[in-house]
Amino acid sequence: MKNKYLTKYLCITLISGTVLSSPAAVMAGNEGVETVVDFGDGSGQGETAPTPTEAPATPAPTVAPVPTEAPVTPAPTEAPQPTVAPEPTGTPEPGPTVTPQPSPTITPGPTVTPQPSVTVTPQPTVTPEADQQAVKALIAEIDRLSGEKLTLKHEKKLKELRKIYDEFTEEEKKLVTNYDVLVKMEKRMETLKKQEDKDDNKTDFSDGSETGKTGTPVYYTSMVSNLHAGREFYLDSLKNNYQLTFSDDFASVMDQIEKEYKEKNGLTDTSDARENGLTASSDSLLVRNWQDILAVYVFEESQNGVKEFKMDSSSKNRLAEIFAEMNPIVRDEENPSHVSYGNYHINTYIKKNRIPQEQRGVLKKYVETDCKLLCAVVTDAKGFVRQSVGDDVSEERVNVITAAYSLVGEVGYFWGGKSTAIGKDANWGNAEKVDAAGSPSTGSTRAYGLDCSGFVTWSVINGYLNQGMQSSIGDGTSEQWLNANVVSEEDAQPGDLVFQNGPEAGSDNHVGIICGQTDAGDWIAVHCSSSKNGVTVGEAYGASFRYIRQPDFYPTEEERIQMLSAGASTANVSAPEKLEQNGTAEDFASGSASGSVPQGGNSDEIFVSDEDAEVIFEDMDEEEQPAVTGQSQGTGNAEVTDTLQSILDQNVSVSQKPSESEEFEDVEVIFED
Predict the structure, then answer these.
(1) Quick check: 570 and 270 in contact, CB under 8 A?
(2) 394, 445, 543, 569: most buried by Cβ count inside 10 Å?
(3) Beta bridge pairs of residue 568
(4) What average pLDDT score do residues 385-395 get?
(5) Where is 591: in which H helix or E strand?
(6) β-strand 309-311 against 244-246: which pairing, if any?
(7) Segments of 286-405 assigned E as strands
(8) Sign of CA pseudo-dihedral 490, 491, 495, 501
(9) Has this prediction a pTM greater than 0.85?
(10) pLDDT of 257-275, one tens digit each?
(11) What is the rounded distance in angstroms from the CA atom of residue 438 to the CA atom of residue 416?
């Protein structure tokens, strides 16, 4: 029996030894030994199992992978001997105390597996669907606003966009891909505001959301893009094509030169006896060669290496000298107490100074048709206007056109705007509500200005310096049509009116003033255009003008001749002994030249005429006379050059009318008989 029990005991001992020597027992005894973890992708990586104290920190689900090894612990089931175990024996107890070792306390090693850090990937969910939409909306608004011309009216919108952006989270801000565009627009807005601050009375009338203040018109700043044909347009054309710039007061510089020359030589004219000094066709001392004086000045400067020509008070002295050389005082042989100016042109200067053929290009360039028009528009100086319209145009018409030019870039379009002020109206630029019916702008607040017929009325009043002319010209297009007469295209002159429609249109019409003519015979008009938001100059046909009407307040040709004759019979030399003897006046007075200057100061009988803006060079063979095809060597009789064409083309889609709501494009020009 002892052997039997001894044999059983030995078997149990052997089984226990086998269990204790199993891999599970080894793993239980070697805490901190490196174990192998499978991350589910088949790649085993060595990890160091944490100490049991760390185990409680790991979530229970992470234990799941290891229990696959645990089934090894039920090793006792492999031996059928447990069937003998019913016998009460305490020896088996040590075994169970070992087998519990595969408990979950061994599994903490897999707690390293969460390291593929899924906790980082949830970042895309930081911006909910609603916030993503907000980001997209901000990007779209920034793009939309950047496509517009930024003006002061956009300041409020920019502030709204900035507020939206600032309220975003840092992650949302990173998604605003065009943030730099927003910053650039904000910087541009700051620049616009600084410009506005230079004038204490700037106003934003653009959307009617702000209270208007009196001051500089809005079209100078926020609506400048609408003023396509403002004064800057013509200044740029002169600078780019002729390297010419004029100071704002250059017209007064010209007036001073004329005044001082008259005083020096003791001369007076019919206009000097008038309180307002307004010139008229009866004046004998009207300067008709200012464009030639300018050409000579530029030529001499260019000979000294000057490339750009600034016309301001600093050029006055030399201009005065050229003025005296080209306007010698010519005494009337039949009436020695009456004198006129020589009004020489560049052909005389070329002959006198023997300018070689290769150097004449500069002189001819600055008496081109387009240069004449640009100088007249930019300076609104009568001396330039006279040459741009031609010698046979009465001074009364010149005065009206000069007044019209003075408003280029100076007043905006305002539906129903009228004025009878002498000079600039103090109300222009003030915030006013458009109360005239029939316009998209009706009911809105804008900078006060003029409509097309209001512009014509103001130009006539200021051309005559007489508010009583309001009744003569009329206030609206209907009155202005009725107060003008039928005239053929051949008999029309600068100063006449042009209309888009006939009388059937009633007040639904557009009106302008003829201010010149191209060499091809096409009329040029100045008018106040709604589409340009101001006074513009361009080809009449392109502006859809169809009819020419002649106001009856201008002197007729017979009346103009009578006025010239009356002026020629008037003594205009206060002190004959003071006449400047410049070597030319005496020649004319003594009769050594071919004849005397006719009334009006025109020297056509002695020197080649500049009549009809044509320059003819004397003593030149026919083949020697240059062919004029453009700006480089043009004359007043040149074809329309690119510069002039760019001016004329700007009105191809012009205007809505003072009572107008539609444009008239591609309308055939039909001038009445």
Answers:
(1) yes
(2) 543
(3) none
(4) 94
(5) none
(6) parallel
(7) 309-311, 329-331, 339-341
(8) negative
(9) no
(10) 999 999 999 999 989 989 8
(11) 10
